[in-house]
Design a protein that fits this description.
Length: about 240
């Protein structure tokens, strides 16, 4: 309960926070529970962090919910994650809508079960006109896949004669990404202590500040988010330049 009364961090907040929600399996294993118990426990973390991001008026929050590599996990775990994400969306979409949160999907649509895809599409459509927090759900998402998909669409436009290759620059390429209107993350948080980005937002993370915590995702709450933001605020972002004396 204590985390629920934590105030908005002082100072300038990152506009866009992205999170790799790691450690569900380890959380369960440490308690001699099946891995899916860790995913279930992570639901409260997701809800609290989305609420905090909305209440603190962040511009965007991207959650890495299911990667293109996660299909290689045991079939029962994959099946659970499909139903878990579907049920979570169905349960929380009305609340998020009431909070003026706009839900977006980032990722490929193939292989996602029809019922889960329907829940995603319904949430996207219901919240389409909301103007508050942009909640981006990276589901069946891979950073390399996003770039490959962007290149394919770009090549189709070149072949159709609607795009001159000489016009392609970073801004034009960005327009072919899944959600080009969402700004790049200012802060990437990875829970559970792993020091890698795991094929997440490869293009978008070019100048993102990275914060890694040993806290496992089911234990991560808004107090931990506030701590990550304070660490972010202590850094000097130069974007390849140098600090002027």
């Amino acid at each position: 309960m204590a985390d629920r009364v934590i105030n908005r961090p002082e100072g300038e907040l990152p506009n866009h926070v992205a999170i790799i929600m790691d450690g569900n399996g380890r959380w369960a294993e440490r308690r001699n529970l099946p891995r899916i118990a860790g995913h279930k426990a992570g639901e409260e973390s997701i809800t609290d962090i989305v609420r905090a991001a909305s209440e603190w008026e962040l511009g965007a929050l991207t959650l890495f919910a299911f990667s293109t590599e996660n299909w290689n996990r045991p079939a029962n775990e994959v099946e659970f994650l499909m139903s878990f994400n579907r049920n979570l969306l169905n349960k929380r979409v009305e609340e998020f809508h009431a909070r003026n949160i706009r839900i977006r999907h980032a990722g490929r649509r193939d292989r996602i079960p029809a019922s889960t895809l329907k829940a995603i599409d319904n949430a996207v459509e219901l919240t389409r006109d909301n103007t508050g927090l942009s909640l981006n759900i990276a589901f069946n998402y891979g950073g390399r896949a996003e770039i490959v998909d962007a290149v394919r669409r770009l090549c189709e436009d070149v072949a159709a004669g609607s795009l001159d290759p000489g016009e392609v620059d970073e801004d034009r390429f960005r327009s072919y990404l899944y959600n080009p209107e969402v700004p790049d993350p200012d802060l990437l948080i990875r829970t559970a202590g792993e020091m890698r980005i795991s094929n997440f937002l490869i293009w978008e993370l070019a100048y993102t500040e990275i914060y890694v915590t040993e806290v496992l995702w089911p234990d991560f709450r808004r107090g931990n988010l506030a701590e990550a933001i304070r660490e972010y605020q202590s850094r000097e972002r130069r974007f390849g330049g140098i600090k002027e004396e």
